[in-house]
Design a protein that fits this description.
By secondary structure, the protein is an alpha+beta fold. Helices cover about 55% and strands about 10% of the residues. Strands 3-2-4-5-6-7 form a six-stranded mixed β-sheet. It has two domains: about 140 residues, 60s Ribosomal Protein L30, Chain: A (2-Layer Sandwich); about 250 residues, no CATH class. The protein is built from 18 helices and eight strands.
Amino acid sequence: MYVMEIKDVVRLLKSEMIPAMGCTEPAASALAGAKARELIGDDRIKGIAVFASRDIVKNAMGVGIPDCERRGILTAVALGIAKGDSSKDLNILSDLTQEEVDKAASMSLTLSIEENVPQLYIRVEITGEKHSSKVVISGEHNRFSHIELDNKVLVDLPAGLAESKSSCEETQALIQMSLEDIVGYSKAIPYSELAFISKDIDVNLAIARHSLVGEYGLQVGRTLMDNLDEHNIRTLDEAFRIGSCYAAAGSDARMSGCSMPVIINSGSGNQGLTVTLPIYWVGRYLRCSDETIARAVCISELVGLVLTARKDRLSALCGAFTAAIGTACGYVFLLGGDIRQMDMAIRNMVANLTGIICDGAKNTCALKIFSCLEAAAMSVKLAQKGHSPGKESGIVGSDSLESILHLTKISSEGMEKTDKTILSIMLGQSGGE
């Protein structure tokens, strides 16, 4: 069995903790459009067809796009085509010009929802007067799994990560990681290799602070920060609450189309905010060193990645919930707790919030982030007192691993119909894409 070495874990963290402008599903859609446009050069476009999984459509439907009033997957693809620069990766939607926005608005595109494809799947086909192109992004938000120019295949990888040998080995290594492994890696990695985490926290702090003085979305973070002073944190509960407010504030801004980057986790900016900012504020209150905070974030990040590897990047289960499980483990580390307490905190989280649905990326994500983080704080406090449910309690297993296996089964098997129903409701309310 493939086992990650320390250098592999560092590489994984650096490849996952990258900046993204706006929600990552519109960004991935725009990236596919940009690549398809690049392939045919300045050829005059005659037709544009978009094919996507329901989860991509769901997550791109209601979220704001930086510097653009329109929303949805077709808007994102059109903006990518207008931009025509795939080198920007997931920052493809940054620095949009009015000319690009106007050009995108004039395009005519068709959308088809694809079945029997990975949950993260977007295909863009462009027909020009002289050339044609086909580009597929799947498995990860910036993974080009198939590229064609004039019916000539240039890239052809398995659509799903599980079907790719190298990706499969890494994914399986992630899935097999225990809490002991995660904590062991986080303690063993030289701090010089983790110093980048402090800069990544600063990126996420910036958008949250910007949101706290602005008026974005439902203003969840700003509203709930009332009567809290980050410069005079008096209790651990206040530190927990400020961390929850900051993460929610970051989501308020990015879901409304704020043109500031977020450092992501598992391809999600909301999850990236969830696993970093609360850890930072609790660490500040406890007067932890930058190194201790970085190692706690490393634990939080890895737990989030492990859970995502088990359930897939897009599903009917809210990603803020699984990310907050990682945050709970990071809290335990900061508070001097052990793996047994992390195990108990995870079981408390699974007992509490399993079933919280993902109904797409939009301004209510901030509500879910705040609620999940408040639950994380509660779960940790219970674990510190030695309280957690056992296998006699619903879906909770005898330990965190068994509980997570049950959670994974619910997400992958039990919520398949739920996911279809959610999208059906959303499409009905929007009148289609």
